[in-house]
Amino acid sequence: MRDGLKYLGGFALAAVLLWIVLRGVDPHQLWASVKQASVLGLLVSAVLNLGHNVFRVWRWKALLKPVRRDLHFRPMFVAVILGYMTSWVIPGRLGEVVRPTLLSAREKVPLGPCLGSVVADRLLDGVAIVVLFSVGIWLSPLTGEAAEHLGLIRSASIFFVAFLAVFIGSLMLATSAREPLGRWIERRGKLVRWMGRTFLSISDGVRALREPRLLVWILAQSMLAWLTIGLATWIGVRAVGADIPFGGVLVMLPMLALGVAVPTPGGAGSYHAAMAFGLMLYHVNDVVAVSAGILMHVVITVPVILLGVVFIWTERISWKDVISAARRLRELGSDASEPLGDAAAVEEGS
Fold first, then answer.
1. What is the DSSP string of 211-246?
2. Residue 349 CB burial class (10 angstroms; 0-12, 13-18, ≥19)
3. Which of 47, 104, 246, 316 has the fewest CB atoms nearer than 10 Å to its CB?
4. What span, in angstroms and rounded, lies between the C-alpha atoms of 76 and 19?
5. What does the alpha-carbon distance between residue 166 and residue 329 come to, in Å, rounded to a whole number?
6. Integer CA distances (angstroms), 343 to 112, 292, 340, in order
């Protein structure tokens, strides 16, 4: 019942946001704008957007290198795609949990560090987005009424970076003081012990950030991934008729990332609203802005869903396996998990 209400809530939110986006837009003009879009441009955008996951897998592999050095590209790529597919078809961003738990179950990677690596993955996404946003503002500054929103966006970005820095720093500090923290946690009550075990287990997923060579490689993959997403988005919106500079798309990245993060099915409604608002900041008319949101949403979701279906068939993974893997999260922090003072399980394969 609770899951059903959550899914209904996600669909209801998507419907409300889509109604807000489409309100006041002439349907005939919207359909004409959609039909005039360049199919070739949208296909190129789709290929680039799907291809950015190669950089994600390379970054994920580097993050897990202190845990397992023998992980191969294919199972990690499959986990990434199935994670995204789950997020696109089920409300609640369940795919963020499916990706690490599926890899953990299939490749025998410790669950805590695997989940921690995905936490680090998302934190690094935030850093890359804010950096590229700053570059975009320098390349394509907002003008007119749109410039009034710049102060709020910049303040939110600074706060976001500060939060990310504190969170990443606390995880890295926990890895260096794992044993004394573990002993202290084991003497606490049940709730504190569960929270502490979970936090320390997750913190092992950021150990790679303490190694300078791995850190440089990881940051480079983060920037390449989001530059590819930016390029794919720029080509896609121009294919629809939105004549904005590449720097403008970089400015839009935080909005688009937020739109995807809202727990609606595949970011439906929220992504469309973010795209329309971002394009209107650069004086794109509302019909083109809305049609760009609709077509780019198709571009980023449909290829992943189709490839995910192929992987479920070729890798012999049932949908039940995907959901069951996500439910393994309940094991994290339990008394049955690996002892906190012993990093032997984490060092397997290193």
1. SHHHHHHHHHHHHHHHHHHHHHHHHHHHHHT----H
2. middle
3. 316
4. 37
5. 24
6. 12, 49, 7
Q: Which residues of the chain have pLDDT under 50?
A: 333, 335-350
Q: How distant is the alpha carbon of residue 90 from its chain centre? A: 15
Query: Given phi > 0 = left and psi -120 to 50 = alpha, else beta, which region is 348?
Result: beta
Pull the structure tokens for residue 230: 């930016």
> Residues 249, 136: contact at Cβ < 8 Å?
yes
| One-letter identity of residue 263 | P
Distance separating alpha carbons of residues 204 and 124, to the nearest angstrom: 16
Its pTM stands at 0.82
- Determine contact, residues 226/129, Cβ cutoff 8 Å: yes
Residue from 147, 144, 152, 327 nearest 254 by CA: 152
Task: Give the pLDDT score at 155.
Answer: 73
pLDDT at position 215? 87
Proportion of the chain in helix, strand, coil states, percent, rounded to 5: 80, 0, 20
Using one digit for the tens of pLDDT, what is the confidence trace for 49-107? 999 999 999 999 999 998 888 899 999 999 999 988 888 887 666 777 888 888 888 88
**The pLDDT value given to residue 208:** 81
Contact between residue 109 and residue 103 where contact means Cβ atoms under 8 Å apart: yes
Specify burial of residue 242 (Cβ count, 10 A radius: 0-12, 13-18, 19+).
buried
CA pair distance 87, 303, nearest whole angstrom: 13
Query: Hey, what amino acid is at 99?
Result: R
What is the rounded CA–CA span in Å between residue 130 and residue 125? 9
In sequence order, the 6+-apart residues with CB closer than 8 A to the CB of 258 are 270, 274
* Cβ count near 54 (within 10 Å): 16
Q: Which two tokens stand for residue 203?
A: 């913190």
pLDDT of residue 232: 97
Q: How many CB atoms neighbour CB 35 within 10 A? A: 8
Q: Which amino acid is at 343?
A: A
Q: What angle do CA 245, 246, 247 make, to 5 degrees?
A: 90
Report the C-alpha gap between 217 and 51 in whole angstroms.
18
Q: Give me the pLDDT at residue 56, please.
A: 95
